């Protein structure tokens, strides 16, 4: 079983953190175009962290977990196209609350720790034979399984990475 912490998504994230670590604190914290670079990254980490907490809670009651519906697969497939057309979602409030100070190095280490912890969750899902069940409730897509959750994390990170690149190009 491939580990999430060794995935292309994690390698991309680490590479991206390395590339932006050269930016000044002024640039990283600039909010003249909405969220700062650090806020975008914190948001992505927080989404993954909260998802992990939700999934851990949900799998305590496996009998309540259903299969993924066809509509959910369809929505998951359509989501990237909808965003490319310019649709903008409002982040759930809980994922848009930021600490006053975000430290890039601490955020990076928290994210590494969170992804390592997600590896443990993935192992637990496989052990419980729940990896294909709809254990996570995404606000737009609906109830999704492990593959769709990881796919969403990938899409979400890349979406925010492109927003960050737009911020950088305007500074």
Summarize the structure in short.
The chain has about 170 residues and is mostly helical.
**SSE pattern:** HHHEHHEEEH
Percent range for β-strand residues: 5-15%
> What is the mean predicted local confidence, pLDDT?
92
Oligomer category: single chain
User: Rg from C-alpha positions?
Assistant: 17 Å
Bulk shape: globular
Class per helix and strand makeup: mainly alpha
Distance between the termini: 42 Å
Note the total helix count.
Answer: 6
Strand order of the largest sheet: 1-2
Describe the sheet with the most strands.
2 strands, antiparallel
Number of domains: 1
Helix content: 55-70%
Residue stretches low in confidence (pLDDT < 50, at least 5 long) are none
> How many beta strands in the DSSP annotation?
4
Structure in words:
This protein has one domain. The termini are far apart. The radius of gyration is 17 Å and the shape is globular. Helix 3 (37-58) runs antiparallel to helix 6. Strand 3 and strand 4 (142-144) form a beta hairpin. The longest helix is centred in the C-terminal third of the chain and has 25 residues, at 146-170. With 171 residues, it is mainly alpha-helical. It has a two-stranded antiparallel sheet. The model has no long low-confidence stretch (mean pLDDT 92). It is built from six helices and four strands; from the N terminus they run H-H-H-E-H-H-E-E-E-H. It has helices at 8-20, 25-29, 37-58, 70-84, 104-127, 146-170; strands at residues 66-67, 133-134, 136-138, 142-144.
List the helices and strands and how they pair.
Elements: H1 8-20, H2 25-29, H3 37-58, E1 66-67, H4 70-84, H5 104-127, E2 133-134, E3 136-138, E4 142-144, H6 146-170
Antiparallel strand pairs: 1-2, 3-4
Helix pairs in contact: 3-5, 3-6
